[in-house]
Amino acid sequence: MELILKETISALGREGDIVSVKPGYGRNYLLPKGKAVLANAQNKAILEKNRAVIEARIAEEKKAAEALAKKLAGITIETAQLVGEDERLFGSVTTSDIVSKLADLDITIDKRNILLTDPIKTLGEHTVPIKVDVDITTDIMVKVTAKTATE
């Protein structure tokens, strides 16, 4: 099934791309949610008419994403956590914790864009990748330190 994307979907493509998907995915998800339209002659003509506007919007979004990636590139976030034996944390540092620390620095990131495979459960410095745009990823450092029970 051929569809024209109305918005950027990281697994498929950018807004305005013509993609082939399985019929069930198109019928049951993309079309009802308004994320795509059928790639028929009429919709292709509309796409070509709006191509310049779409490309300008994509370029603007990419420029903003590159600026955010540059801003994030050298950041180190420090968080203090309670520690037990063998320097293992009580609990863990999760994507929500990282989002709140970034918010303290006036940086707004959706927690789904933090590519943390497993929560951080040990002390030390950890490199955490952040997906800024479909094809732009940057790394930040998360430094986990020990916090005493009295802090």
Descriptive report:
The chain folds into two domains: 2-66, 3-Layer(aba) Sandwich (Ribosomal Protein L9, domain 1); 73-147, Ribosomal Protein L9, domain 2 (Roll). The chain has helices spanning 23-30, 41-72, 95-104; strands at 2-5, 18-20, 36-38, 76-82, 88-93, 120-122, 124-133, 136-147. With 151 residues, the chain is of the alpha+beta class. The protein is elongated and about 65 Å long. Strand 7 (124-133) and strand 8 (136-147) form a beta hairpin. Helices cover 33% and strands 32% of the residues.
CATH architecture of the largest domain: Roll
CATH topology of the largest domain: Ribosomal Protein L9, domain 2
Structural class: alpha+beta
Q: How many domains?
A: 2
**Major pleated sheet:** 3 strands, antiparallel
Rg over CA atoms, rounded to whole Å, is 21 Å
Please report the distance between the alpha carbons of the first and last residues: 59 Å
- Percent of residues in beta strands? 25-35%
List low-confidence stretches: none
Please tally the β strands and state the result. Answer: 8
Which tags fit this structure?
single chain, 151 residues, alpha+beta, Ribosomal Protein L9, domain 1, Ribosomal Protein L9, domain 2, 2 domains, 3-stranded antiparallel beta sheet, 3-stranded mixed beta sheet, 3 helices, 8 strands
